[in-house]
């Protein structure tokens, strides 16, 4: 076998890999997929951003309508600490006073959002950054008096996203909301992703997190659940079989199912190309939830 | 005359005022107007934001395609000082190192842009915030090595703005640019406004500043020039009759004329409803420049 | 205060007046308003035509879809008398023989309609005159044998008006109908306006007449009713509290409400800018009827 | 041969006749044909209106964009005489004072136009009557001071006709013009037809008159010219070989050729289905003029 | 009467014939008509193809959406015999082995389809040949094991035809189906026509055959039934009053009625212009079936 | 490493392979690629059809507008021999009498075309088979009297292909042409592909053949030319460095370049996924020709 032949053979294998994706491309062509990308993903594994962006762009080019929703927890912590502003927490939620809100806005809109958009645009003029205030997309009110400017979603208007998707763009949404008096709010990004996925009648909602998925026994990696019904997850929540940071994520996932999203996926975003693997193979990465 | 009659009469006068705007509405219906709104305008006269927003929304409702471009100089200074980061200037331009750029992005995208968008949206889901990185709209490269991340506009792609305008939105543009390696840049907002006005074939470009306009004699308010040709302004620049902060503004205005914008207006944005007066009356507020 | 400053101040007040209309513009943007303009309005107060036309054109430019319907009673009387053709009336309706019908057509189509259209077009190529025969828009049959060519509306086809509105035109409709044998009819303009408003799903139907509105006590101007429910008007009709020329007008208004029009307004068209005041202020001019 | 067979045979011949029109239908499908229909045609031969209307509707259904332009000379004479208003003529043109103009408008817009429209609409909601004032379609100025309100065409705006044609309607145009001060004018219908045909880039302009066409020798019917170049007609005009009422018609025809219309046809409209024969056969009816 | 006058008179009669078609053109304008054209029609009466094609093209030009479906029985027999491949029949259906299927495909797609398409295109670039495999239009499965590749229609997807009709084309459909494993099938053309007519919500389905229509008494031509309800035909089938080759045709016709087609026509395609006569006259050619 | 981990790792590699195609997908998104698929490809290596079809469908799903053109030489030989009809050749071209033409049509339209279409449609309702007669797409005349029905392309009308591509279909074109008298012709498929690629302003034309590409020395595989300019190929043709079946292929390739196609590729279609490798890698398979 000559060198050239070896090359050709290797290329043929690669070409074959491309065609293996055909059934998945067909199945999701023209469908909407909402992806929640966590701030952890960026900070824990800087290089993973590039493979994530490649995945997003590839999904777009093969005809999937992709919406990215992001938060930025660790980055907000960093800025607050730099500004010497201490945070307090009530029932697991950061109390958001006016100054904290400024930092949240500056991080999400001024750091995370342009970072994602500009990286996506290395592959063409695709990414457009928006927040829930743009086009009054995410209407909020305060979740409680004591939490300050932490918002609870009252109504979402997906028309701006629909328009951007129709133009062939990839909207990148920062989890900021707005009320009817033009006050901005800090909103949990998982909830924003669920609400938008519902309003867009998305086929899939994918949470890229820093855990593998839901485990039958939280402490035992071998008990990772590949697929489960929404009702089963509800039971696990009632049984307290779900704990810690997974609780709000599970509730967001259930909300999306309730809003009519066909399947919700919880994946470890640190795994290279986790998104692509989940959409383009039958092999379960993480946990898939369905109605 | 009864009270009710007096009311009716007053109302009739108001109705008459509305119809006086008819010839202007007809003239600009369907045309594009780009407005540069300075950071000073917000900080000097907080209430002026509300009347500015009313003007912008009214222009939109009477059929004008409005684009707002904003900077945020004073607010950037405030954040840098709060973060204890000193700025140095070279030939009148702020040297923008990585940390300064972070502050620029956080202020423009995280503070100024959502402020303008959310205020506009008090009047309906109209405003959509974008930066020059969205849709790769403002392509830049470094203006010089010593200035760091200060960008020089290489090319603008107005397609995202065209799409937003077509959907009936009011785009609010933060003066951030991006290069081909996804590096963001701080770009002078006047230049961004001029380039976008040119690319959008705008009818008018309006600079809302904190001076009345161009004066024949900079120290004498009574020498305000109402209308002038671009060539006259060029001569004044060569004669050094223009000085200080007006020099870059004059250059931006000339650039817009060169790019094909029909008229450029320099107004004092602190005057209530300055924008509306300029568009809807024949009475000259500030200085109008034309080819 | 210098003269220039005084000017500026006056202009600012005018600009403020413009922005006061914003909430109304927003509320009616894209909505349809049908206006019945009576022949009396032209003959009683010739100058009022100009302010009426300004109002119509302004409504159009701020995004309202305007349809004008007109009759021409006094002008028809004048032509008939000039041609020496006496009219007889049966139960309040003019008996319309072939010769009378010729006069009706000549006045409505040959005098009133081009007058309104050409005045509107002083503000741009907006007005397009049509009659109920154009595009078979108003299908009629004879109201009774003894009334001759007085038509009763059988069905309206609003597609021609929809098309003209979509092109940005202001249709001006003469109250002529047609039957299935191509016979034309004289139709009451109030009824035509009500039927068209219903078929166009109009937001508002405005009758510009020569009375102020409906009074609780017909002889006492101070009893003008600002707002009333359709049911209250029905009761007044049954109680005979409504009399004379107001009876058919009241019935037309009730018909429009029945056809689904949100509100019907009876105004004194002789008041300058009555139309604009009714649409653009909360202050009640005349009487507003709603379901 | 049974009776039924005879029927079938007759029907087959009819079907064959239909298919004979195929080459003409193909040739003119999607093309615009402007038809000038004279007032004489209606008054001389009342029944001819029905066959004319059938022809117009058939052309429309086989995919030709048809515009009808009409005058109403004899009918105007009748009304003026009835109103006891004498006409004077200067250089062959009726002096049109304000009162004469009123009669012209009443006849064209109030009698002729709705007559044509309502007859066309016996075949569906196709006809829409317009005048040159609608949509400011025919802009005029006075032809001379002494002629009063006789208009000379300054500019035509075919956009309203284009829109109506696009909706599948048949516009019926009364030869009324308007100037920039909203003054209406009496305009020669042949000229209006020529100008509109030019502006619409019509394939054909057909004058339906009460003469057979242009004759080599005006007094000898056997010298009817079937086809001629525009230049030949110009020479005949210079030679005074054309006389009387044919002179203005010839000039209008030449104007249309100059405006880019491919062919102009002068036909005797009293011949049943003259229009259809001209468009759908190769046999020359009347005279065809081409560049 | 001169020769020219005689000509003109003859032409006038022809023109009148054209206008007689007006009511039918109006009734069917924009409607869909599916025509089953049998292989017999071509072989029995070669010249009839030209008049058939003229009819099809004329229907298209007067605004009817025409779809032609064809089989090719006699031509298939000829090819099979030439290739020395004998056919066997089970319950009236040709057993279709792989080799027979090849011949069916070669005749329908390689002979009949391009013949029809190219003849239609003598009148413009109108005809586009397709089979049930194109765009997966006719999905089949085997009708029984013993019949081999004889298909039974499982589902039709009319989107390709809708698209072609929208572009103004005349689709010519060969009666080939396909299953989900890409196996092609021989499908009865009458059934394909009925299923497509149903899916396209056709106004009419016309079977051009070599018999006159349905007779009350199969042996007596004078008992031809002009119009009948679907229920009456069902009864005749149950009574065995229908026999031979008419049975499957009757069943296809009933299927179309069931699928919502307004009327089904059985005509003798050998009669010149039979199609046009059926669509454009009230005189019954053949038998019309309705719900 | 656990089994699951091994799986994940393998999947990650596959995912990475997918993203490697991104730059190529971006470059060709929305572009048109015409592919000539030879009859040899099917007969020599039956399984290659499946991988070819996968490649075509994948290109379509990633946004490339794909047109497949095919011939069927070997299959035509087979049918002719089966029908006992000998072929003669004149100057390398098969003399095509009426009977030969029938066989050509039957093979191309009845065998090859539905085979390709139905295989493509295993991946969705994408493929639509057409010939040059459909929509009068490929207009021909006889190449010479002695060659009979061998066609020479006179003009191509790509509108049908444009329409099909716009609907998202994959047109599959059989190399049949038609003249203005509806006579069909046998046309060289390479020429049809070149002409269509030119008319569609294709980015690429790919010839899938049974040779590797063009060699500097025809007898030495190691002299395969990876890239060459059109002018170099012309020189080789003049030098007689190109011989045999490669001559007409080289001429077709040059024709496409002349018609404005950016690059023409000659590949060995027997190599699995040759098409995908050529479009999606920088590694040269075969020979690429450019202007």
TrEMBL record, chains A, B, C, D, E, F:
**What pathway annotation does it carry?**
Amino-acid biosynthesis; L-arginine biosynthesis; N(2)-acetyl-L-ornithine from L-glutamate: step 2/4
Could you tell me which residue ranges the Aspartate/glutamate/uridylate kinase domain spans? 31-267
UniProt record, GO biological process: L-arginine biosynthetic process via ornithine
Provide this UniProt record's keywords sorted from A to Z: Amino-acid biosynthesis, Arginine biosynthesis, ATP-binding, Cytoplasm, Kinase, Nucleotide-binding, Transferase
Give Gene Ontology CC terms. cytoplasm
**Record Pfam families:** AA_kinase
Q: Where in the cell is it found?
A: Cytoplasm
Q: What does this protein do?
A: Catalyzes the ATP-dependent phosphorylation of N-acetyl-L-glutamate.
* Protein name from the UniProt record: Acetylglutamate kinase
